[in-house]
């Protein structure tokens, strides 16, 4: 294998966290067929980042010309990727020992998207976090009952890029890239590419560790971020409809979240849902099991953020 032939291209968006980025890089195996692409979102002195290239083999450091978000960073990384397979990692997470050995052993079949499992912990306490539970559950439920319905649930629900391997030629063919928003920039990419994939494989192997950080974008909320999230979901709903997916997407839960930001935000969210292919699903408000699940998740998330 020559210098320009790689089996894997790993794309890592980075923002103001060289210490945790180094932790991620340390978790990677030393192998010549792995291309490591770090794209900084104009957050630190590029010379400080470039020092990492002296510590780690096959590492490429780039920097965006302005702060554009993780979606833009991943898209830049996609343009640099040369590997047969694409992987994505957040700079504050890490791969589990032996992850790439697992990839080697499983990626012997021709596929477009490969799903794996993740472990999640709270960084401060080291206790279990629920961040990966839902995505793991989707994978396990499909493995236990490999029906079209379970596969569709997996495609629609697994909206994060980690713990997946994509065939690069497939991603190039779909032309579906990441949204360049500051939040929810990975949802459209993951859901729509999954819906377009014809060859999907799911494995019961843990390959990735995701950390719950109290100060991360996924752990904080604001009116503008909520509006962006719902706007992205509306875009996904529109594309799903174009692809013939009849299952409804609901926006009613976001109305609850919008209420705490005041009437103007509530009205904006209401209008986004009204004008899109999202559904209100107001009868869902009267299902006790949904309230129990909603309140339990809110309580757990609140505890993990402390």
UniProtKB/TrEMBL annotation:
Residues 9-168 form the Glycosyltransferase 2-like domain. CDD domains: Glyco_tranf_GTA_type. It comes from the Bacteria. Keywords: Transferase. GO terms for molecular function: hexosyltransferase activity. The keyword DNA-binding does not apply. This is Glycosyltransferase involved in cell wall biosynthesis. It comes from Kerstersia gyiorum.
């Amino acid at each position: 294998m020559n210098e320009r032939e790689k089996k894997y291209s790993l794309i890592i968006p980075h923002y103001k966290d060289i210490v945790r980025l180094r932790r991620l890089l340390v978790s990677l195996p030393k192998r010549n067929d792995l291309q490591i692409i770090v794209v900084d979102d104009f957050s630190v002195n590029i010379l400080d980042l470039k020092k990492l290239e002296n510590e780690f083999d096959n590492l490429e450091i780039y920097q965006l010309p302005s702060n554009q978000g993780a979606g833009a960073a991943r898209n830049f990384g996609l343009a640099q990727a040369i590997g047969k397979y694409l992987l994505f990692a957040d700079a504050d997470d890490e791969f589990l020992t032996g992850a790439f050995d697992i990839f080697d052993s499983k990626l012997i079949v021709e596929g477009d998207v490969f799903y794996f499992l993740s472990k999640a912990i709270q960084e401060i306490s080291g206790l279990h976090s629920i961040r990966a539970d839902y995505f793991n559950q989707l994978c396990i439920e499909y493995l236990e009952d490999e029906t079209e319905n379970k596969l569709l649930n997996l495609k629609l629900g697994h909206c994060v890029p980690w713990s997946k391997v994509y065939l690069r030629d497939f991603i190039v063919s779909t032309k579906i890239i990441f949204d360049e928003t500051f939040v929810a920039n990975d949802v459209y990419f993951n859901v729509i590419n999954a819906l377009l994939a014809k060859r999907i494989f799911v494995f019961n192997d843990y390959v990735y560790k995701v950390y719950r950080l109290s100060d991360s974008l996924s752990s904080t909320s604001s009116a503008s971020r909520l509006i962006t999230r719902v706007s992205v979901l509306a875009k996904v709903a529109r594309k799903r409809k174009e692809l013939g997916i009849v299952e409804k997407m609901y926006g009613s839960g976001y109305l609850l979240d919008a209420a705490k930001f005041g009437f103007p935000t509530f009205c904006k969210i209401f209008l986004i849902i009204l004008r899109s292919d999202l559904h209100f699903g107001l009868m869902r408000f009267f299902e006790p099991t949904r309230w129990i699940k909603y309140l339990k998740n809110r309580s757990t998330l609140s505890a993990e953020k402390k």
